[in-house]
Amino acid sequence: MSDTTQTISSLSYAVRQQYIPDYIRGAQAPRLYDAYAENGAIPKEYVKGSTINVNFLSELPPATTAIPEDSDVQATSLVDAQASMGWSSRWNLLRYTEKLMTQSYTKYGAEAYYAIGQNMMESVDLIARDQATQGALVQRKVARASLAGGTSTHLLALSNFIDAGADMQTLKVPSFVDADRSMWLATFHPYALADLLNDTKIVAVAEYQKANILFKNEIGELDRFKLNVSPWAKMFWGAGADNTTATIATTLNGAVVELAESIVVADATGMVVGGWLTIGTEETAGTHYATNERVVVTAISGTTISIAGEGSNGGVKYAHATASAVRNANSVCPVTFGGPQSLAKVYAQDMETNLGDYVGEYGTIVGPNPEGHLKQFVELGWKYYGNYSRIIETRLYRREVAISRDAGQA
């Protein structure tokens, strides 16, 4: 009987499956605005086309006249309309060497799967987020560029939920059913929640009836809205009113890589330790910039500014090109009110590819695949086919507010 040596190649599925949970863990993390979307898979026959059409029929007007006795009644016609949405795709890919996997002391394989999963869900939900936080149905106290954190009437308040609830009932926006009650969803950033908790009416309820609102952050719903508060919620960083203490409007004097803990600016005038800075292009209208981010100044040495941010090491999360804008204007939080059918969502599944891949709602992981003449490289990626669209404008209502966290920031 000959000896048999067990090798990695003969247990390839076991090696790959070791990291699949890390991919799923990452893929489930930032899923947020998808809650406003109704599911729908694209049939194979429509994947070949460039757009998907959704048809609508008008309702009959109320009858207000009696049946005539001396003539026949006139027939009424229904009117139809059509909305269309295109479908798109997203992807990302990591390539690393066989040598890295054999010599790295870090859990690169597991972390690569987690990063791929998180990037897939963040990228796909970004499509939904942009659709949910754009559109014409928006209310603000003043123009976005004039919203100021130091002005109390510009902050999120209980009255905003009452107004939104009345509007959504009037517009007959489909709702969730929770404990036999019709409810909608309100999605926004924790900075706006901090202001909401300072609303005098809510404070009164917390002080005299339900202390857990203040001490355990248990304000789960307001009016007819479930509160969906998340740090992944959209923010228009630096898009509000200019800072009244010291206006900073400069640029990066050199490119910045991911996880950098310092930046070099063209002019550091007005910057102070503890002040907030936004890196990226100001979002003035419906165009969004996915890599805008906010950092806090921790030290200043000439034009070299040490910062703390949302990167995994406490540095910046994204790379930024030289000459990118650096500002300290007030930020604006969009509060999105909607229901389960406020967005249309379509995705491809069972696509006829060369590999017979199943794509589906989550997209699909691709790899790890060996590459190179000696199979010395490994590629790991994901791909997604689908789209989100707000085909009925009145099903999403947006309130844009300032955040008091910016008040007095230098």
Task: Offer a few descriptive terms.
9 helices, hypothetical protein PF0899 fold, 7-stranded mixed beta sheet, 410 residues, alpha+beta, 3 domains, single chain, Major capsid protein gp5 fold
Low-pLDDT residue intervals, each spanning 5 or more residues:
4-18
Number of helices: 9
Number of strands: 21
Supply the helix-strand structural class. Answer: alpha+beta
Order of helices and strands: HHEEHEEEHHEHEEHHHEEEEEEEEEEEEE
Distance between the termini: 78 Å
User: Which value, in Å, is the CA radius of gyration?
Assistant: 26 Å
Give the integer mean of the pLDDT values. Answer: 80
Strand content: 25-35%
Share of helix, binned: 10-25%
| CATH fold topology of the largest domain | Major capsid protein gp5 fold
Tell me the CATH architecture of the largest domain. Answer: 2-Layer Sandwich
Biggest sheet details = 7 strands, mixed
Number of domains: 3
| Coarse morphology | globular
